[in-house]
Fold DUF2971 domain-containing protein.
Amino acid sequence: MHRTFYPADRPPLTVQSGRGWHYTSLAALSSIASSQELWATSWRATNDRTEVHHGLEALSQAWNHYGQENSLADRTRQLLDEAGPFGSYADSFEHVNILCAARERDSPYQWNAYAAGPEGVAIGLNLGTELVTDVDDRPRRHNDAELFGMQWLKVIYTDRQKHMAAARFVAEMDTSIREGAPMEVSDFRALNLLTALNFKHPAFRHEKEARCVCLSDGVELQAMPANLQKTIVPWKGLPVRATPPTAERLPLPIVEVIASPWATEATVEDITRCLADAGMATVPVARSELPFR
């Protein structure tokens, strides 16, 4: 698929290979497998009360430092002024939704935090498969409505990594704008916000997270018609006016499912049956190797 080359689209900010593990319940797996949908969570509902704000603060500091050391392009300075306070960027979008996956297979923390009990599962996802609807990672407009996404982003936790990533993003953004890249205020806010969502408080570093993010502005979302979408949907619904062409739908990139450390034989059988009923009988089911009681 086409990928627009934005300053945000660079390692280590994007993940384009490997596996991620979405820890959840057997009931959720059944819903995901049968609907072939992965639903993201609003940033306001995550367990990190500094979500978004922590990253935006890091970017605000990076922009201030870069502006003091360098002469910003006139258009960059104009965009910074028009975009308003960094802390308000998320409020410019009606929906900021996040789909999380841990980079660690069979993680003790993830089991305890997100999939405890005999019916917990870890869904292994191929991070080399992008999660898109009819919207690629360019802004897509309908009158004043916009959607932004979707890439797997690598979350970084250390101050040094954040400083380096933010400094590079800011410098490349200013250079890109100086060289004439088209950039509206909504684009500017979105790219900064997407980058900010790479940064989390170091207290969460054990999660080793990758995440997929969707931003939408002025777009009314609705439940996705299951017989219309040709790829998978990582957030809640489609824009009302964006109707994708009818096409065969690609399967979710589930490469393995792990049963929790507390799973019974009956639970493992239920997981296997759930996948088979969804036409995913070839997906292997493994048991956790952790010796939890």
In short: Residues 1-5, 133-143, 221-248 have pLDDT under 50 and may be disordered. Residues 159-178 form the longest helix (20 residues). The two ends are 46 Å apart (CA to CA).
